[in-house]
Amino acid sequence: MAEAFETGNPLAALPGNFVPGSVAEGDELAALMLEELGLATCGIRLALGLDGVRLAGPMLEGRLLPDGASLPLAALQHAQVTAALVAVLAEALPENGQGFPAFATVHPAIDVTGSRFRDPPASLGLLAADLGGLGHVAAGRGGPLPASSVAVTLAAARRRPRGTAVDLQAALALAVDAARHSGGLPAGAVLVVTGLSPAVVPEAGLSLAASFAGLGRARLGFS
């Protein structure tokens, strides 16, 4: 898995006796992979899926992209794109703390899932081992966290469809709980929440914009 992460060459299915039987076992495999690669996490990424499925995984600084970046499709496996939010902690988030932490800034963002496997992970345990589907996250200009639900859209950059109302504070509260469950985070770490819009399958030449009313937008292209 570490080799697949480094080279981008997809990995065949794991032998049955190596397939994690639970999310906890998958998290252990993911931690071993990051240790093998010598990579430290900069926060957590909470993927919000269909049917209320939530899966927390590591966020890596090298997977954060600037606004307007472009990704080659050839380097992506099983890619899907959703609107996301990146929040930077202004204070430490202790494991046993309570309440909502202070954020230095929040950023509208675009999340692109990725995989180290040739075939999509067929279980939550395997998806956890695959870093929760971490691909790349492109973040726009930051601002304060809106106090109420905002309209969120993800569409081709020149389109302006009607957005879906999203309670960003509630979404971040889920990420805060996940961070505390994983042991807490220091000040300056990031919380990423994905799945804030319907998913889009990227195509070469596509340029997407995630727009958050009252906060701003993030842009990402594919080549």
Per-chain topology:
Layout lengths: L1 H6 L15 H15 L5 E6 L5 E6 L4 E3 L2 E3 L9 E9 L3 E2 L8 E10 L11 H6 L6 E4 L10 E7 L7 E3 L1 H14 L2 E2 L4 E5 L12 E6 L3 E7 L1
Parallel strand pairs: 1-12, 3-8, 4-14
Antiparallel strand pairs: 1-2, 5-7, 5-12, 6-11, 7-8, 9-10, 9-13, 13-14
If you had to describe this structure to a student in words, what would you say it looks like?
With 223 residues, the protein is α+β, with helices and mostly antiparallel strands. It has a single domain (2-222), classed as Fumarylacetoacetase-like, C-terminal domain (Fumarylacetoacetate hydrolase, domain 2). It contains four helices and 14 strands. A seven-stranded mixed β-sheet has the order 2-1-12-5-7-8-3, with helices on one face. Strand 13 (207-212) and strand 14 form a beta hairpin. The radius of gyration is 17 Å and the shape is globular.
Q: Summed up, what is this model?
A:
This protein has 223 residues and is an alpha+beta fold. It is 18% helix and 33% strand.
Contiguous low-pLDDT stretches (5 residues minimum) are none
SSE sequence, one letter per element: HHEEEEEEEHEEEHEEEE
Average predicted local confidence, pLDDT: 94
Tally of distinct domains: 1
Strand order across the biggest sheet? 2-1-12-5-7-8-3
CATH architecture annotation: Alpha-Beta Complex
Helical fraction: 10-25%
The count of strands amounts to 14
Q: What's the CATH H-level superfamily name? A: Fumarylacetoacetase-like, C-terminal domain
The structural class is alpha+beta
Question: Termini separation (Å)?
Answer: 26 Å
Cα-atom radius of gyration: 17 Å
